[in-house]
Amino acid sequence: MNGVQDAKTKCQNSNMLLLISLNFFSASVVQYRARFSYLHMKYLFFSWLAVFVGSWIVYVEYSSYTELCRGHECKNSICDKYRKGVIDGSACSSLCEKDTLYLGKCFTAKPNSQVYSGSWGDLEGVIKCQMEEAPHYDLGSEMEPRKEAVAFNKPTKGTSVEKFREMIFNHLKAKVGDQANLADLATKVLSIADANKDGHISLPEARSTWALLQLNEFLLALVLQDREHTPKLLGFCGDLYVMEKVPYSPLYGISLPWIIEVWIPAGLRRSMDQWFTPSWPHKAKISIGLLELVEDVFHGTFGSFLMCDVSATSFGYNDRHDFKVMDAQYIVPEVIFQEVIRQQRCDVDEDCLYGADCLTSCDLTKHRCTPEVTRPNLAKACDALKDYILRGAPADVSEELEKQLYACVALKGAAEQMEIEHSLILNNIKTLLWKKISHTKDS
User: Fold this and answer.
1) Percentage of the chain surpassing pLDDT 90?
2) How many CA atoms lie within 13 A of 165 on its CB side?
């Protein structure tokens, strides 16, 4: 009997252990399933979030692209006017008939001014086209350029070449002031207007040229066409024109997605902009080019110009490290700037700002802006250059170069009021740089 009782007890114990094991296993399975379900839901949530954010970014980028990049609309508009005989130019046939002038990558920053890379046969260029409304300065107008649709209705039918020359002369006089050699500049314009070089200027050619004359960049290219700082004009059709390509731009800086940009401290961002720049001797040559541009536009052959956006994005350089202007929209004739700005109503000095860099003061007795800029072109150029040229500068010039650059940045008032100091600092910086690279192949 005792043996049977012991056997029953052992069996009961075994059943109990099995039941406990099964309960433990079941609890483990339930816990594992709960944990797996949590991880699965977490994975699904973050996957959905990534897809949503990615789709939103793609949508925003695509919307921005389609809103900004309307080059083909611009081309269709220009070619329609060309086929109707309204406009003509050296690029019209290639753009509209032969299809040898192609619009490539879009670099447009503002919808009304289309900018594309382009190829024209064996030539690489930059194609610029005004969409519907083009910036147009007018005396006595508001601070921002007044917008007018380009109708290509000037000059009118029956206008003689001499009358057209007079129109050009008066327009240039209003733009750059009464300069002694304006007649020479008018002759340059007429030579460009004869696009097919047949010795005659047709009405469609004249209308294209007149539309181009309204643009600051075209005017500056004319004024500085004998200098190396502005890209060469390769051709035009209406107010669409093709400029020589500048291989390296902007002058410095790296482009980052905005979602990364917002998390980077300003100090680190400025340092990052200098990571991918040429060797110091090459930077010295490029910097000298910018300083020479300042000289050229200050009391130049055809009057003075103000540089109202002296940022790295406005400039670039070529394979020989020659400095080039990328965007001359905000390099404006001083005469026009002063006429426009003095009509601007203001309550504080900040109301008297044009572009990023042309600031005047507010006359609170009249609530009108004064015509003289607070900083000369040279101070703005040195501000743009100081981090660029001081990084990696040789030890034997670094201290003196820094001293001259900061003296340059501190320049105030119109350049006419401090012309001697202005010229002295500019020449000191150029001399420092030239001495260091003049004996090398980089010069």
Assistant:
1) 44
2) 14
Across the strands, what pairs with 119?
102, 124
pLDDT tens digits for range 203-259: 999 999 999 998 888 888 888 877 788 888 899 999 999 999 999 888 887 776 666
- Separation CA 408–CA 356 (nearest Å): 19
- Give the closest residue to 358 by CA, choosing from 343, 379, 386: 379
pLDDT of residue 398: 93
Give the Cα separation of 353 and 209 in Å (integer): 30
Tally DSSP H helices, then E strands, for the chain: 14, 14
State residue 50 phi and psi, 5-degree precision: -65, -45
Backbone angles phi, psi at 127, to 5 degrees: -100, 130
Residues 98/179, Cβ–Cβ less than 8 Å: no
- Tell me what the pLDDT averaged over the chain comes to: 81
Reported residue count of the chain is: 443
Buried/exposed code over 237-264 (b: 16+ C-beta within 10 A; e: otherwise): bbbbbbbbbbebbbbbbeeeeeeeeeee
Contact of 322 with 278, CB cutoff 8 Å: no
Beta pairing class for 331-333 and 133-136: unpaired
Q: Is 190 exposed, middle or buried (0-12, 13-18, 19+ CB in 10 A)?
A: middle
Question: Apex CA 139: angle with CA 302 and CA 352, to 5°?
Answer: 95
Beta-carbon count within 10 A of 111 CB: 13
- Using only the alpha carbons of the chain, give its radius of gyration: 33
> Residue 81 has what pLDDT?
94
With a cut of 70, say whether residue 38 has pLDDT above it.
no
Residues 296 and 222 sit within 8 Å (Cβ to Cβ) = no
For the residues 400-423, what does the mean pLDDT come to? Answer: 83
| The dihedral formed by the CA atoms of 85, 88, 92 and 93, expressed in degrees to the nearest 10 | 70
Q: Which 3 state secondary structure label does DSSP give 354? A: strand
- 145 three-class SS: coil
Please name which of 355, 293, 296 lies closest in space to residue 322, comparing C-alpha atoms: 293
Residues 95 and 101: beta-carbon distance below 8 Å: yes
